Amino acid sequence: MLDKHNLEKIKKIALKIDNDIAFGGKSKGNKHLLRVVRIAEFLGRKKGANISVIIAGAFLHDAALPSGDDYNYSKNKKIVKSLLKTLDLSQNEIDKIAECVASHEGLVKPKSLEAKIVHDADVLEKVGLLGIVRHTWKLTNLKKISHKGINNNDIKTILDHIEWRRKRLQIPLSKKIGKYLLVPINNNKAREIISLTANMAFDGVVTEKIAVVVRKYLNQKQNEKLKEQLNLRYLRKF
Question: CA 113 from chain center: how many Å?
């Protein structure tokens, strides 16, 4: 049964993976999972979805990261089902949670309302300025970009990915929020943020601390928007 007791177990499993296993423990201290859960729960209540499934799926959405690839739909399902098999859950509950995890990266269209919401919650963490910081951090730690010299292709890759994800938001409310979180940024400012983030990521700094430093290089509007993303106050507007 997906009750409070099992949700707490799922939370512990997810935080263990995020803090100690994924990226070799380099992401310990970031609050991405906690924010995604809050966003997903907010969207879920607005849409009348199954909140327990949403919370479980949101906590576990990055469970496949230690495997080196969380984009594979089938593999994601197998991994999360393996993690859940020790808990006292029904097969239906496991299947619903697994769908949330498997489709969260947007390569496969989510098949349930709960999966759409978990997908959208993760995307809303990866739009705007916070999205630039988060995706740069990920690519740096995956050694897909070099902190030694950010080039135009790196910038395009990061900005294109963020926009690609935003365009795949599933529910109308998410699309409104995604549009609200957008903030004008020119190529020079993008390069500055990406270069700063990549260097700090290489030195082992987590996204939470990087975002605090990045805010010092932003204008007032950009600063406030990033602050809203970090503390989730923007949800009050919706």
Answer: 18
Place of tokens 């929020």: 177
In terms of Cα–Cα distance, which of 51, 27, 19 is closest to 38?
51
Closest-CA residue to 130 (of 220, 210, 196): 210
The C-alpha atoms of residue 117 and residue 106 are separated, in whole angstroms, by: 12
Task: Please calculate the CA angle 32-27-139 and round it to the nearest 5 degrees.
Answer: 90
Phi, psi of 218 (to 5 degrees): -110, 155
Closest CA to 114 of 61, 35, 78: 61
Model confidence, pTM: 0.95
Rounded distance between C-alpha atoms, residue 78 and residue 101, angstroms? 10
8 A C-beta contact, residue 124 and residue 84: no
Any alpha helices (H) in the chain, and if so which ranges? 4-16, 32-47, 51-60, 73-84, 91-102, 113-124, 128-141, 152-166, 172-181, 187-202, 207-214, 220-231
Cα 163 to its chain centre, rounded Å, is 14
Q: How far is CA 204 from CA 68, 140, 214, in A?
A: 18, 10, 16
Q: pLDDT tens per residue, the chain (238 residues)?
A: 999 999 999 999 999 999 999 888 898 989 999 999 999 999 999 999 999 999 999 999 999 888 877 778 888 899 999 999 989 999 999 999 999 999 998 889 999 999 999 999 999 999 999 999 999 999 999 999 999 999 999 999 999 999 999 999 999 999 999 999 999 899 999 999 999 999 999 999 999 999 999 999 999 999 999 999 999 999 999 9
Structural domains present in the chain: 4-119 (1.10.3210.10), 126-237 (no CATH)
